Structure to design on (587 residues):
């Protein structure tokens, strides 16, 4: 687990370089979601370039598609495509590495970008797996601001109704969206109660803590007869005080000075984790 | 008088194939009765998914099923399916390229007096504007059957609009000429070309017969494949005609008429007249009353054709 914690910081450095190279990116959410993706891809999910077409593979949809830079960094680390290719092509003219997930790229199941689509799509995937008696699991990651979309709750309703215990949703609860605090924009601090009332098993954990995420995913796997949602309480922009908990870092390209400072901070935190 | 609506023909084909093909899945949004799919739900409960009154969920779940190898047919009133879940059709189906067949039932003004909320006079325009979405409006139950059988063979997204009420047969059970994405030529003539889709094919065919009785020879095309439009057949007959009439149960904008005018204008410019519903909520009435009021009947089409060629 310890090397995964350091890996999350190494991949944050990749995210930063991808955003600098492409001159754009949703940096705040990339940083908050990183431990969720690292835990899923390197600890939990049965998915790799070798089994990408295996019908028994685990399925993943990044419903908060704007965090695609984090997904690119993770998929490159998994070997789906070279990291250098992402750096070279992200957001460039004619590139498949666009600013939201594109399923013409290896490792990406569904296109997303508009919020509120991933959960109901994953309900369909989980239903298909159940129909075919497959043992695989289906994972979707949503943002907290995304939960204002009504379609999320249509998916929550059907996931609960069909008791899809092969489905696990994760909410990247970083408490910020473009306009500011989620509680000021559209309050939602009773997420656990909301999901429970839709028939879900709900777990609230420190969302940048890989040990806690691991335990939550294991609890989800052991939960039968209902789907699980993990409210992952994260820090937007995690990795450097330059961008942490700042709503204006939702989508931003750092200046040269900010870049230097963020890299220094990321390196320091990675080093600290390696010597913990 | 035929008593079998096109939606029932869809159910029959799906039931015939679902026995052998366990990947066929039908989804409804509290619409199994209105979609004539209740028999499917009863016969194949393991291959039927109810989502409740939630069209967005309907389409997204279908996309997820398709991603995992299922062959979902999602049926919901065309008015809701083509608007409420438009973005799901755009992103989860067309953009993600999932093998979802969207069945818009009770399309056009089928719901008659229920009003504009229940009419889908914009579905052709909306769905056609989505890249990788195909749009089909079959004219009768026999053609509907052929179309669904063809759609079961491919892996691409499609939107199919059918009406609520039974319509008179155009074709015969054992004589239904059909080629995927090719218009069916109902009659050939050199004076005028009439192109129609869906429920407008019947009056277009009758208009062709009425014109013939008056010595005017018309070509009548059943353009069930609105997108991809069969431009080859269209232009072949438009070339020799003095004018082209397009007839559809749709808004004046972005439907069959717009597409026909686009093709004819670019390739063999001549007069194109688009017969359609108006750009306003339609008058209250059943389908026949509405069609008659707006001249979307054999007499209206024949009169329009004669005026277009100066007769």
């Amino acid at each position: 687990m310890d090397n995964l914690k350091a890996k999350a910081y190494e991949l944050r450095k990749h995210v930063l370089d991808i955003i600098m190279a492409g001159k754009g990116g949703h940096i705040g959410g990339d940083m908050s979601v990183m431990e969720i993706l690292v835990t899923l891809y390197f600890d939990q999910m049965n998915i790799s370039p070798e089994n990408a077409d295996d019908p028994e593979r685990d399925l993943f949809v990044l419903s908060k598609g704007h965090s695609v830079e984090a997904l690119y960094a993770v998929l490159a680390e998994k070997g789906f495509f070279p990291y250098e290719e992402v750096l070279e092509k992200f957001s460039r003219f004619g590139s498949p590495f666009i600013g939201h997930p594109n399923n013409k790229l290896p490792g990406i199941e569904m296109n997303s970008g508009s919020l509120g689509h991933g959960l109901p799509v994953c309900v369909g995937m989980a239903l298909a797996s159940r129909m075919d008696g497959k043992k695989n699991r289906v994972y979707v990651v949503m943002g907290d601001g995304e939960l204002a979309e009504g379609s999320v709750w249509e998916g929550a309703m059907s996931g609960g109704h069909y008791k899809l215990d092969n489905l696990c949703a994760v909410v990247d609860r970083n408490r910020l969206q473009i306009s500011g605090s989620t509680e000021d924009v559209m309050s939602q601090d009773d997420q656990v109660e909301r999901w429970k009332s839709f028939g879900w098993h709900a777990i609230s954990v420190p969302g940048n803590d890989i040990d806690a995420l691991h335990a939550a995913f294991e609890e989800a796997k052991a939960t039968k007869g209902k789907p699980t949602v993990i409210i992952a309480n994260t820090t937007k922009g995690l990795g450097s005080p330059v961008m942490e908990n700042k709503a204006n870092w939702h989508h931003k390209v750092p200046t040269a000075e900010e870049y230097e400072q963020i890299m220094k901070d990321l390196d320091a935190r990675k080093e600290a984790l390696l010597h913990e | 008088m035929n008593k079998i609506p096109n939606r029932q023909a869809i159910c029959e084909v799906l039931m015939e194939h679902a026995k052998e093909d366990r990947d066929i899945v039908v989804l409804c949004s509290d619409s199994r009765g209105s979609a004539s799919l209740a028999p499917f739900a009863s016969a194949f409960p393991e291959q039927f998914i109810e989502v409740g009154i939630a069209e967005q969920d309907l389409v997204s779940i279908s996309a997820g099923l398709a991603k995992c190898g299922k062959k979902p047919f999602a049926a919901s009133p065309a008015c809701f399916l083509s608007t409420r879940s438009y973005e799901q059709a755009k992103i989860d189906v067309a953009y993600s390229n999932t093998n979802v067949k969207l069945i818009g039932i009770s399309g056009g003004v089928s719901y008659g007096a229920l009003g504009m909320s229940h009419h889908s006079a914009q579905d052709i325009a909306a769905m056609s504007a989505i890249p990788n979405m195909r749009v089909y409006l079959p004219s009768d139950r026999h053609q509907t059957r052929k179309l669904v059988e063809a759609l079961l063979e491919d892996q691409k997204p499609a939107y199919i609009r059918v009406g609520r009420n039974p319509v008179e047969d155009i074709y015969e059970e054992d004589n239904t000429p059909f080629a995927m994405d090719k218009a069916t030529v109902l009659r050939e003539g050199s004076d005028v070309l009439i192109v129609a889709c869906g429920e407008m094919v019947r009056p277009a065919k009758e208009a062709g017969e009425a014109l013939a009785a008056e010595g005017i020879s018309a070509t009548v095309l059943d353009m069930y494949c609105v997108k991809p439009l069969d431009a080859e057949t269209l232009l072949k007959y438009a070339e020799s005609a003095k004018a082209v009439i397009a007839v559809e149960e749709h808004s004046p904008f972005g439907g069959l008429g717009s597409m026909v005018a686009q093709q004819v204008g670019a390739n063999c410019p001549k007069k194109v007249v688009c017969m359609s519903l108006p750009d306003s909520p339609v008058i209250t009435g059943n389908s026949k009353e509405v069609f008659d009021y707006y001249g979307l009947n054999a007499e209206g089409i024949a009169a329009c054709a004669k005026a277009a060629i100066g007769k």
User: Anything to note?
Assistant: The mean pLDDT of chain A is 97. Chain A touches chain B at residues 55, 59, 103, 109-114, 116-117, 120-129, 131-132, 150-151, 154-155, 157-158, 161 (CB under 8 Å). Chain A has one domain: 2-274.
